[in-house]
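Lecture notes, structural biology module. Today: joint structure prediction for complexes of three components.
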Amino acid sequence: MMEETMSKTNKSLLAVILFIAANIAGALHAGPIIHGAGASFPYPVYSQWAHKYNQITGVKINYQSVGSGAGIRQIKAKTVDFGASDAPMKAEELDESGLIQFPMVIGGVVPVVNIKGINPGDLHLDSKTLTEIFLGKIKTWDDPAIIALNPGIKLPSKAITVVHRADGSGTTWIFTHYLSAVSSEWKERIGTGKAVSWPVGVGGKGNEGVASYVQRIKGSIGYVEYAYALQNKLSHILLQNRAGEYVPPSTETFMAAAEGADWEHSAGFYVVLVDQPGKKSWPITGASFIILYKEQDDAVHAETLLNFFDWCYKHGDEIAIGLDYVPIPDSVVEIIKSAWIKEIKSNGKQVWH
Amino acid sequence: MQSCSLKTRKAIDQSVKVIASLSAVIGLITIVWILLTVTGRGIGALNLKFFTEVPTPPGIPGGGLVNAIVGTVIMTIIAAVISLPIGLLAGTYLAEIGKGTRFAEVVRFVTNILIGVPSIIVGIFIYALLVVPMRGFSGYAGAVALAVIMLPIVVRTTEDMLNLVPDSLRESALALGASRWQVTLNVVFRSAKRGLLTGVLLAVARVSGETAPLLFTALNSAYWFSSLKEPLANLTVTIFNYAMSPYQDWQQKAWGASLLITVGVLFLTITARLIMKRQGKQL
Amino acid sequence: MPAVWAVWDVWDENSPDRIIKPVAGDRVFRWITAVCAAAIPVLMAGLVCVMVFNSHLALKKFGLGFLTSTAWNPIAQEYGALSSIFGTGVSTLIAMLIAMPMGLAVALFLVEWAPPKVEAFFGTAIELLAAVPSIIYGMWGLFVFAPFMADHVQPLLGRYLGFLPLFKGPPMGIGMLTTGIILALMILPFISSVSRDVFKMVPSVLKESAYGLGATNWEVTKGVILPYALHGIIGAGFLGLGRALGETMAVTFVIGNSHRLSASLFETGNSIASTLANEFTEASEPLYLHALVALGLVLFLITVTSQIAAQLWLRHIIKKAGGK
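The predicted structure, tokenised, for the full assembly:
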């Protein structure tokens, strides 16, 4: 008996000791930690910003790439400090929940393919063929419509596997917004949304999942944020824009699309950058937004949070451009900061100065 | 019976033997294939950094999964601390005290059902029960989810092992004037010690490989935890996230983590079996 | 059961001078253990209540139609469980069709035909299959087995059996067939180990008489062992079934995540568990979340029903064996 209760006591004692040790170890590593969750679209740049910021200031930003839908849900449930979404919330919805949203970075959604012999930038597609591929109407790569746009490229008679998102995604929102804008059939049948009823295809989780499937499945086509295409060496296409030009995705073409945006007069910074005019504009450009509560419980915590975003605006440009994102222009940053001053309060006192 | 010739009957007999052997060989090939894959792909990731550093963002090389390893260990230990006492005592009730009662029958029935509940349902349950009211994902929620999965397993194995102890032992102890609870703790437990330990090890092995219940409770984190009330890094959800990612570096780390978990689970399982074998020999 | 166990407080009546008075320690011990035992049904009841409470919006809106609708449209807020149920059903069916015969064959091999050393070796190897965590199956499935299926198995099936609607479509590797096969490998050890135990229990006398009459090994198996062990085999089947229905991680990795019903096994789909794993943290509207919990409730009911059936079946066997 002694043996039994002793070993049981020993076990519990060990557990308690470990527990205390763990908490001490944790406390030693403690610095302020900020939790965010949401879009996978900006994850490559957010994670590098957070890493650099942590090296400089010791503040931890724990950003989980779970998809825009999850990001909105979590900030609404107050399980995180900030949410991130590429699908901007409408002003009424923001006001209803007491949230404020502002753009953090701009990027491009890029169709990518896995076809033998096709390199990045080889394949040309226009809005019609792209839509029909995603509608399931064009089923093989050697379809006449595709060949017509790509004389001189040998296309195999392989079946097309469409890869879309399985989770609630702002990237999907931007992409379907584009498809709805260029195709009335898409608009009527499928529509715009973070998760839609896809007529064909396989679902990947996050931009990561789509990139992963496109890597594996021969003859596949998917859509990802450009950084994912670059980091994983996927073959992007050249897409025809509104002005009739075939443009590649790049910081330059994303910036061209963002040029005409009217941030100042859009409530909640609700601006959509798809199908923009301009010879150099990339047709599927989008901004990614941060969402927080206007009323913050802890003023110090809120200020730490805003300091991070401020740093990203001021010092994060190089990292962003290195990943082919477009930083928010300084003029817009000014407007954002005045919104912070006006809207974000803690117990009645403004947080940002 | 059949009017087949002896030749046909022998032929059928042989072919069935071949099919049966083939099936066994397929089983063998599968486990060997899996173990070779996990070892081959994972061993390259298990360097010193893996065990001492926290992850770096994609695009920045290096980093490790020490926070996830620690997180998994902590949650498993807390889950064990919660479920073992309750499970052992409940199993004791079923085998020793309430034997034959209607109540024990009901509990036994429900325990068997609970063992079969998919772990993702347990995750949803704890999400609604703890994560939402606590306003956040936490290591605690993850540990409780694992405890809920462990509990019925511990109850069942405890009951089975205690039932194996012969009544003569109990009778002798009672004849010597011991009270019921003394008999149970001193004599019965001691005699079933090995079996109970086996049950515990198997339950721990089972939950340390679980992913689904942690998806909505502990979530994951890229940092050392500062408190268990926060999302807690753990190996299994990390494997899930990293494996589905397109980054080579992350995929390799996922394999390293897979190797670690596989080695851990197999170690616990094989240890449990060896203990049981020794018990068998002693009896 | 000896009389000593019949009553907690009093010794058996044959020795009236050995009455043990209830000790305070005994009462406390009894009370503590009873409370712990009660934790189990309380937990179960709590689980059911929480699930129902968190799915009532969807249950109210869609009613029983939830089970027959193939819609899954988060924009239009139309949700139906059919495509997920279909995926769970088909993948489990494939798994059972493969694993049951295979598991029985392996058990037969181990019990009847393998020499002891071979039995020990193969027996251990197959039981290790049960110890491997499901996420490892998922990893292996996605990175190794699915490409193997895509490059070697599916093209062959497509070429020779492609006229069947079962094998139409491009060989992607991931999809229903691969999922079914991986599930079969996961439940194989459960079926084979239970069958092994049951086969060992067949009295040698029965087998020997059959051999004495000149039966071959297979005839003895078919005519003596299998009928005798039938009940146990069905029990093994229930065990495997329960495991396959609830399996999440391995399925999520390779099923392809599309809400679609398709006749082809090469196509992707969704199971209830994989839908939950993928979409639960994403559901941003209450109705979406409730629809997902309702889906979980459906899975819960399916597994509980099969568990109850298994328990009742086991009782039936025990009664029968007791009767014999």
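Point to remember: Residues 49 and 64 of chain B are 5 Å apart (CA to CA).
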